[in-house]
Amino acid sequence: MDTGVSTRKLVTKLSLLVLVMFGFGYALVPLYNTLCTVTGLNGKTGRLSEATAAAMPKDDTRLITVEFVTNVNSGMPWRFKPLVTRIAVHPGVETAVDFEVMNTSSDAITGQAVPSLAPNEVARYFSKTECFCFTQQTLAAGETRRMPVRFIVNPKIPAHVDVLTLSYTFFRAAAQVTAATPTVKSVPNS
Amino acid sequence: MSDAAIHDEHHDHHPYGGMTRWLTTTNHKDIGTMYLVFALIMFFIGGAMAMVIRLELFQPGLQFVDPVFFNSMTTMHALVMIFGAVMPAWTGFANWLIPMMIGAPDMALPRLNNWSFWILPFAFTLLLSTLFMPGGGPAGGWTMYPPLVLQTGAAFPFLIFSIHFMGASSIAGAINIIATVFNLRAPGMTLMKLPLFVWTWIITAFLLIASMPVLAGAVTMLLTDKFFGTAFFSAAGGGDPVMFQHIFWFFGHPEVYILILPAFGIASAIIPTFARKPLFGYASMVYAAASIAFLSFIVWAHHMFTVGMPLAGELFFMYATVLIAVPTGVKVFNWVATMWQSSMTFETPMLFAIAFVVLFTIGGFSGLMLGVTPIDFQYQDTYFVVAHFHYVLVTGAIFSIMAGTYFWLPKWTGHMYDEGLGKLHFWLSTISVNVLFFPQHFLGLAGMPRRIPDYAVQFADWNMVSSIGGFVFGGSQILFLVVIVKCVRGGQKATDRVWEGAHGLEWTLPSPPPYHSFSTPPAPATIEGGMR
Known about the structure:
Chain A is built from three helices and ten strands, in the order αβαβββββββββα. With 190 residues, chain A is of the alpha+beta class.
């Protein structure tokens, strides 16, 4: 049967296309993340080693104001604030600032800070050499901790930009989110 | 009357009787009927939800339902209408018509065909059962944006799995249609002789195969985010909720063309019939549909202009979106040119087809407005968007489904429908649908947000007008049901050709066609004679 064979071939090809497109949906995830890191989309900032940062040329002619904003995600009983709210830096000069976070609850909680930089399109000119956002932080009940961030602004940053805003949001760590999310059983009868 | 078809009439028997026949059938006509009946039932269920929405919005304040239920009505109305009414209706048309239009004995994969239909009742049982669960049905909008959708209660896994089922059903249907058209065409039926309904369906099928699996992936990520600790869309774990919107709309934009392309095919079949002229610009119609399909994959971010994109991205998606107006304009031009200086008559299918051309174009124009980025910043998430997509989907997709139903119903049942009732249904629907949706443009321009159960008092008047239009439109669909039931049960005997100007192989078969048609392919001369 000629039609039978060619139908089988066609259906195999089409089913393969379905699988490829299912995979493509997942492939969009790393693709999107790469695109965001390269373009700074969504304010994703990069990380630099100390050595690279030290080798960066300095530009003493420009001053860029960096502002700091902090947030705590809903349901996270932490107090979180920058110790310096704004600072003027020269591009190419590594700068350190401190943040303070306090666990106001009576339980130990693990959190993770997620950074975002505005304006988004210059996020790739802003890098951190040290940041508490790289790792999960566990705070005991009532504990207060000071957390440092070291950052550097690339001298190639476009001339029209003179203010950057770095924002941090503390979330519960993913594993705890799953545990804290109401499960099917605990949904109220409404 | 074709002699190729008649010799089959004597084995017009079904191996099983009663319900078993429908459960086990592999006949494209039976399956087409089941799809169409299923779509009609879902149309009324989704319509009932729309009535709840319009009832609550009749006056400002909360009168009838609580806000969570209202939100689950808007969510479920969209899911039921898109996946339950319009898509199965198109697959039903495809099942009934494509084998008859290309001179094939049946679909290429009849068993798969049975399976693709019978998944649907299970999918919608899952989905609709959520309305009776603690916490209610999904209420975060049909677009299922996280993190909101992750707060859905017991309904959440049901929502996800019902979407998996719907996707599997439509992918299987699409594969079947491509295999049928590519391998079972009668000798002499070359690709550029295919009726446009078949062409638009092939293109739709490719869109389905390319976009549905992406949706399946996106909802699977939601599922694992909620239950298995992944963090695709959770910022806490390094994910990004905006990424869901990108993945979703990579499916979502082709999806809107999946809903509308077969409508283009139906209009291209009906208008030449009642204009008694060949379709103007057949080849350009095919190429226009193909370009629309291609463009549909590179415009998705116009649904999310306000999430924060680089200027270059906003511009790219704006230009690509507005570019779609070109092939769409070609199509509208061709329909109008077909009617130009023709001897038109205005039977119900033609009335619906003309209303489709006019009203779909209005929806297209408001789409152009939304496609312009700076303007979209004002219109995003307002009733202007609601008005836009209802013009495209109700007076576009649904009107052409009705046009197609009136057009082929005599062929399917062997009886003429009641023309008087059909015309009454048309005029009631067309007037009321405009009373229903046109004022929503004004509401949106004035700033009324979509998906809200209550609104500021300055929106009260137009909402009341819109609701009155909604009730009349909803009520007049009962007339549609009456016409169909009457026609199935009896009526004036339909001729084989049914319509004086009808062309195409399906009209060479008797009305109703025998259970097995074109067991031997039609003669090449019939193909030539049937085509215009």
